[in-house]
């Protein structure tokens, strides 16, 4: 088999094991939504704000009284904190991705942070033993802190061990595992499974289950050869790791590529956050990386999920929760399609198709929302727009930003770049989550026009500024930006000379 295209059992196990962290990330994202009313009830009970009248109303025998209890400001505050604290934890810990990844290596780094996930799962799973609102909030904060780390460590590790020919496909595994985790949480969160009055702590506690399995499998996974060779200078260990990952094939090209990257890394000083932000050498790559992550979160994908159940209800779907699960299933199917296409069609092409398609769907969504009270069939336009919007998202803008950052930077600045991009992602996610209800109240059915404008802007930016990284080595990708920078510098110097001459 051709060098660079070798897929071995060890590589499959390593990617699967790392992706368990992404599965846990997705599960934690989706698990809190389904049992919202039940959790609010238990918060109210713990705060002494629950009565028999409220109990009757939640069980459906009465319609009055529940809003006064469940919508109590303290209950709303604790519930909002339970949701928002997850993103805050991720925002804080995303800055530590590079430190944790370099401290003991990618594999041991993932193993270390699993302690956080298991502790968070125990806090939420045992929350009935004390004050559920306090224990759930603590558990969500710790789980968010864990997910901020794992959402950087997983793409970093997979990007460094993947053969060049399959780097895109394996890079999308992070997003695929995330959407599978969301779908699993939606399914087992149904009231007749775990999303009920008795079992909801177990539903939340299962957030830590993938960490247990991952902890058992990580010792079987080889460390990143790039980490061993470029950061630690351990050539023989890197060679053994490569041999385990690629099997009995010629490793000369891989070792030569890492040698060149190490020489380049040795010539430059250790890249800190401040150096990365202010250095003109990395400015273009960093700007592209941050814009890719902003395009993911400011696309309106979370708003679509926010609206979906209400739109399905208005369209006459008797069980809108199942339609929402259908959206999750489409999420997964089209992420699988991205895995197949990303190394054939390319990162840039798929991102452009995805963002452009989402822009058109956002316009269709606006039309459907505006006229669905006048024409009943417009509800189905809205439904179709939701499914297509999610499909286009998972073709490119969903999975690609997570791994393209690792491709845009060499070994030296890569951990800091992944950390900054992750922080940008978590921060914009938090801002959209907090601001969307106000934007919705302000713009009403025109809210998706705002996202359409943003999507159009991101599409133009990526068309003009983002290079194709398919099939290129890390060294070749860095050279693209260096060439652009050199051309820009030369043009500036020529212009300056011309100005001086004219003077």
From TrEMBL:
<keyword id="KW-0472">Membrane</keyword>
<keyword id="KW-1133">Transmembrane helix</keyword>
<feature type="transmembrane region" description="Helical">
    <location>
        <begin position="170"/>
        <end position="194"/>
    </location>
</feature>
<keyword id="KW-0812">Transmembrane</keyword>
<feature type="transmembrane region" description="Helical">
    <location>
        <begin position="416"/>
        <end position="439"/>
    </location>
</feature>
<dbReference type="InterPro" id="IPR005828">
    <property type="entry name" value="MFS_sugar_transport-like"/>
</dbReference>
<dbReference type="Pfam" id="PF00083">
    <property type="entry name" value="Sugar_tr"/>
</dbReference>
<dbReference type="GO" id="GO:0070837">
    <property type="term" value="P:dehydroascorbic acid transport"/>
</dbReference>
<feature type="transmembrane region" description="Helical">
    <location>
        <begin position="111"/>
        <end position="131"/>
    </location>
</feature>
<keyword id="KW-0813">Transport</keyword>
<dbReference type="InterPro" id="IPR005829">
    <property type="entry name" value="Sugar_transporter_CS"/>
</dbReference>
<dbReference type="InterPro" id="IPR020846">
    <property type="entry name" value="MFS_dom"/>
</dbReference>
<comment type="similarity">
    <text>Belongs to the major facilitator superfamily. Sugar transporter (TC 2.A.1.1) family.</text>
</comment>
<feature type="transmembrane region" description="Helical">
    <location>
        <begin position="349"/>
        <end position="371"/>
    </location>
</feature>
<dbReference type="GO" id="GO:0005886">
    <property type="term" value="C:plasma membrane"/>
</dbReference>
<dbReference type="GO" id="GO:0055056">
    <property type="term" value="F:D-glucose transmembrane transporter activity"/>
</dbReference>
<feature type="transmembrane region" description="Helical">
    <location>
        <begin position="445"/>
        <end position="464"/>
    </location>
</feature>
<feature type="transmembrane region" description="Helical">
    <location>
        <begin position="286"/>
        <end position="309"/>
    </location>
</feature>
<feature type="transmembrane region" description="Helical">
    <location>
        <begin position="76"/>
        <end position="99"/>
    </location>
</feature>
<feature type="domain" description="Major facilitator superfamily (MFS) profile">
    <location>
        <begin position="14"/>
        <end position="470"/>
    </location>
</feature>
<dbReference type="InterPro" id="IPR036259">
    <property type="entry name" value="MFS_trans_sf"/>
</dbReference>
<feature type="transmembrane region" description="Helical">
    <location>
        <begin position="321"/>
        <end position="342"/>
    </location>
</feature>
<feature type="transmembrane region" description="Helical">
    <location>
        <begin position="7"/>
        <end position="27"/>
    </location>
</feature>
<protein>
    <submittedName>
        <fullName>Solute carrier family 2 member 2</fullName>
    </submittedName>
</protein>
<dbReference type="GO" id="GO:0005903">
    <property type="term" value="C:brush border"/>
</dbReference>
<feature type="transmembrane region" description="Helical">
    <location>
        <begin position="377"/>
        <end position="395"/>
    </location>
</feature>
<feature type="transmembrane region" description="Helical">
    <location>
        <begin position="137"/>
        <end position="158"/>
    </location>
</feature>
<dbReference type="InterPro" id="IPR003663">
    <property type="entry name" value="Sugar/inositol_transpt"/>
</dbReference>
<dbReference type="GO" id="GO:0046323">
    <property type="term" value="P:D-glucose import"/>
</dbReference>
<dbReference type="InterPro" id="IPR045263">
    <property type="entry name" value="GLUT"/>
</dbReference>
